[in-house]
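To the wet lab folks,

You asked to see what we're planning to order before we commit. Fair enough. Below is the target structure as tokens, and below that is the sequence we designed to fit it. If anything looks off to you, flag it before the synthesis order goes out.
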């Protein structure tokens, strides 16, 4: 069994994650970021790759407050989380552990992180690692970039030999060994592309590590995450990943692996049909020759779009999907000022983007549409 695990580089990861106190876990962005609004306040991991057994304890603290219902319905507002983690290998003592703090700020389409990590686990004896990165969602693709700088302890031995001849009949060799401190700053730049496809997330990641005393080291790794259920996440990775890139991700492994993450207290809505919050980006109307008005709304992440207005007697009208994320319908709209609302994926009624706003009594915000 051990030989088989070594051949395939298998990694088994068991994680316990508490239910998120805020919005569901269907927002865009890297899954490894541990915002409490996404994965909950506590996670524990146990892993085995082709060389070692690893463990980690990961916790998060919410740094943004307010009504959970408000944050869940408007993920355009940024949320903050502070992640704290402790990681080590099966044979680690207190000197070989890695301690990490990570500040994560995100909304539904973009986010960034800033972290500090110390410890020697997963790589050379790094005194301190500082990292930062950002990501941006372009449905169904996420783009991520980051930089990690590490202060690494390193020494080399310099050997000197010379021949001493006190006279023509006698000689002897002298050898001295001197240790030279080569400690220096190493920098790892990395980038990733993530493709969300229903319950599956595919990632291609790569980068380069540079330092004054070493030649540049290029690396790449591909990974897959699949939500088998709201509590079980299946994982796989192929390729290599350096220690600096692992410093802020307690469940990632440096080598090829297979694994599973179990989250018994995951929220009911942890699995989404798509990983993005639907947001309306653009509203257009155009008069047609038959007296009707062509109404168009651009919302590439939505699965269902509805419209209601005074000219429909406030009865919902469903729009039909068109090309490039557009939704449209054709309606008979009399000239004058009208109040209009839209609803995305069965959510709350809201004003269309780009229209002047007004407040409907007991019905929320509506857009003001002028038809000539």
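Sequence we intend to order:
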């Amino acid at each position: 069994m051990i030989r088989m695990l070594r051949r395939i580089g298998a990694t088994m990861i068991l994680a316990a994650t508490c239910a998120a106190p805020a919005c569901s876990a269907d927002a865009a962005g890297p899954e490894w970021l541990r915002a409490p609004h996404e994965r909950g306040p506590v996670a524990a991991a146990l892993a085995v790759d082709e060389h070692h057994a690893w463990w980690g304890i990961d916790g998060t603290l919410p740094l943004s407050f307010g009504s959970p219902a408000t944050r869940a319905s408007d993920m355009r507002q940024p949320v903050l989380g502070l992640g704290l983690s402790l990681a080590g290998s099966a044979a680690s003592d207190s000197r070989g552990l890695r301690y990490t703090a990570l500040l994560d700020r995100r909304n539904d389409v973009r986010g960034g992180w800033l972290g500090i990590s110390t410890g020697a686990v997963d790589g050379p004896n790094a005194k301190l690692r500082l990292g930062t990165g950002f990501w941006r969602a372009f449905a169904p693709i996420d783009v991520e970039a980051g930089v990690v700088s590490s202060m690494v302890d390193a020494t080399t031995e310099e050997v000197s030999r010379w021949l001493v001849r006190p006279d023509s009949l006698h000689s002897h060799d002298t050898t001295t060994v001197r240790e030279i401190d080569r400690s220096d700053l190493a920098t790892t730049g990395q980038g990733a592309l993530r493709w969300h496809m229903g319950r599956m997330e595919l990632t291609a990641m790569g980068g380069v590590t540079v330092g004054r005393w070493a030649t540049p080291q290029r690396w790449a790794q591909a990974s897959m995450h699949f939500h088998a259920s709201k509590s079980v996440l299946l994982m796989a990775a192929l390729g290599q990943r350096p220690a600096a890139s692992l410093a802020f991700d307690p469940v990632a492994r440096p080598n090829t692996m297979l694994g599973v993450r179990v989250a018994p207290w995951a929220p009911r809505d942890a699995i989404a049909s798509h990983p993005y919050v639907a947001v309306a980006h653009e509203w257009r109307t155009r008069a047609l020759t038959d007296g009707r008005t062509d109404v168009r709304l651009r919302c590439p992440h939505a699965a269902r779009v509805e419209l209601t207005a005074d000219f429909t007697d406030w009865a919902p009208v469903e729009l039909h999907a068109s090309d490039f994320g557009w939704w449209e319908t054709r309606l008979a709209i009399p000239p004058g000022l009208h109040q209009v609302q839209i609803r995305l994926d069965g959510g709350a009624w809201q004003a269309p983007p780009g229209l002047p706003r007004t407040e409907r009594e007991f019905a929320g915000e509506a857009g003001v549409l002028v038809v000539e």
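Structural context that might help your review: The mean pLDDT is 76. The domain at 2-153+181-270 is CATH 2.40.160 (Porin).

Thanks,
Computational group
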